[in-house]
Amino acid sequence: MRRLIPYLILCLLILISVRSNGQIRVAVSKTYGTYEAWLRNVEPEVVIVSIYGRSIDSALTLLSTCSGLLLTGGEDVNPARYGKENELPKCEEIDNYRDSLEFALIEEAIRLKMPVFGICRGEQILNVALGGTLFTDIPADVGITVIHRSSSGTNGCPHIVNIDKNSTLYKLTGTLRDTVNSYHHQAIDKIAPGFKISAFSDNGVAEAIEHESPSGKPFIMAVQWHPEKPTQKSGLSRPLAENFLKHIRDFSTVMKQHVPAM
């Protein structure tokens, strides 16, 4: 218990500060400038809390001072996490520390009922953490009728996505079919229980996920494309940031109500 006291004091002080200055804090699993800019274009005063590189205990303590979790793009998820250990040769760079970190962050965010949004790898690890699986390599497992990653990766790989009309994603964007900017060679295979694919490419690859029945549940959504990239059309970018930040602010309001007065 003694060892927890400094962490509890830190959390309390940060929460009191947040309540007094009106700022909201977003935990980012591994941050890059484009993700920060994507959120700040909507909410200039948002505080970005970079989590990567910390111990799991320290990361969870920091998460408890935030009002949302953003899972960003990056390395392949280790296939041992979803029962495909034998397909490791089909993978590219793997960061086992990051897998462990993000699994812990997702579990804690869900326990706290905190809004969670995933992008690219963020969608993939979210699906795995919630009980789903991945295709370890799209060209080998699905085919190449739709290219999801350019050879250079410099500007992503534009392709069409189709959005389910009976989805929250459609309500946010008002779009049934449009172009996205992606860069990935892995994708969702088996969807996690309780979730549905809300957008897919012309070759059936999952491009977005959300709750099957979102009513009464904490906000969780993820997309395979990169809404944070300047090359992404605004219609499939800004509404996603606006909605995520709305849920974060709502959660922050509830959280502040539970901070004791000084």
Characterise this structure.
- The chain has 262 residues and is of the alpha/beta class.
- It has a single domain (2-257), classed as 3-Layer(aba) Sandwich (Rossmann fold).
- Helix content is 34%, strand content 19%.
- The chain has 8 helices and 11 strands.
- The strands form 2 sheets. It has a 9-stranded mixed beta sheet with strand order 2-1-3-4-11-10-9-6-7.
- Helix 3 (56-63) runs parallel beside helix 4 (96-112).
- The protein is globular, with a radius of gyration of 18 Å.
- The chain starts with a helix and ends in a 5-residue tail after the last helix.
Topology record:
Layout: H1 5-21, E1 25-28, H2 33-40, E2 47-50, H3 56-63, E3 68-71, H4 96-112, E4 116-119, H5 121-129, E5 134-135, H6 138-141, E6 157-163, H7 168-173, E7 177-182, E8 187-188, E9 195-201, E10 206-211, E11 220-223, H8 238-257
Helix content: 25-40%
The CATH architecture assignment turns out to be 3-Layer(aba) Sandwich
Strand order of the largest sheet: 2-1-3-4-11-10-9-6-7
Average pLDDT, all residues: 90
Number of domains: 1
Q: CATH homologous superfamily - what is it? A: Class I glutamine amidotransferase (GATase) domain
Percent range for β-strand residues: 15-25%
Q: How would you spell out the order of helices and strands?
A: HEHEHEHEHEHEHEEEEEH
